[in-house]
Amino acid sequence: MAERLSAEARKSALKELPGWTDTSGRDAIARTFTFRDFNEAFGFMARAALVAEKNDHQPEWRNVYKTVEVVLATHDAGGVTALDIDLAKAMNAIARQLGVA
Amino acid sequence: MAERLSAEARKSALKELPGWTDTSGRDAIARTFTFRDFNEAFGFMARAALVAEKNDHQPEWRNVYKTVEVVLATHDAGGVTALDIDLAKAMNAIARQLGVA
């Protein structure tokens, strides 16, 4: 099972994850992605969903038209683990390909 | 442009929409769908997204693992219109095919 990252490890991981921040009030990381339109936003979600399912680690996310708000945490570990960092990295890579830095 | 439904018309439409209710605090309708797993939840979203895009009328929705919380309203009309009722009907039909009544 994935282990909860130490504060140090998480801080270090976040430095490599543009756009992601600690969430206030819970042990999780979050990012809001803004695309050009719904087509791109949902295209991002579709690609991210395949990554999530492959890794058996799913995001919490909310989509309103061209924005996608993502929160990542590992329920079983009670906080942020390497699984979350990996998914955040994958999401950033997909967004980058869609022209969102 | 779609016109905001009267209270009467909305009430009548909701009767034909199992699971959907008025949201408190804003002029919108909402339903939470619960599927068997993430695969089914995202499959539902993918099909609903195609309907939404075709009708150029997108939902607000939040997905956490096997649940999808949907809120529908028509921004331009400041409330619920026939566009929302049509999308809600389409979502119920997709969910029904996935075994969610």
UniProtKB/TrEMBL annotation, chains A, B:
InterPro entries: PCD_sf (IPR036428), Pterin_deHydtase (IPR001533). One of its GO terms (molecular function) is 4-alpha-hydroxytetrahydrobiopterin dehydratase activity. Its EC number is 4.2.1.96. NCBIfam families: PRK00823.1-3. Keywords: Lyase. Belongs to the pterin-4-alpha-carbinolamine dehydratase family. It holds the Pfam family Pterin_4a. SUPFAM superfamilies: PCD-like. This is Putative pterin-4-alpha-carbinolamine dehydratase. It catalyses: (4aS,6R)-4a-hydroxy-L-erythro-5,6,7,8-tetrahydrobiopterin = (6R)-L-erythro-6,7-dihydrobiopterin + H2O. HAMAP family: Pterin_4_alpha.
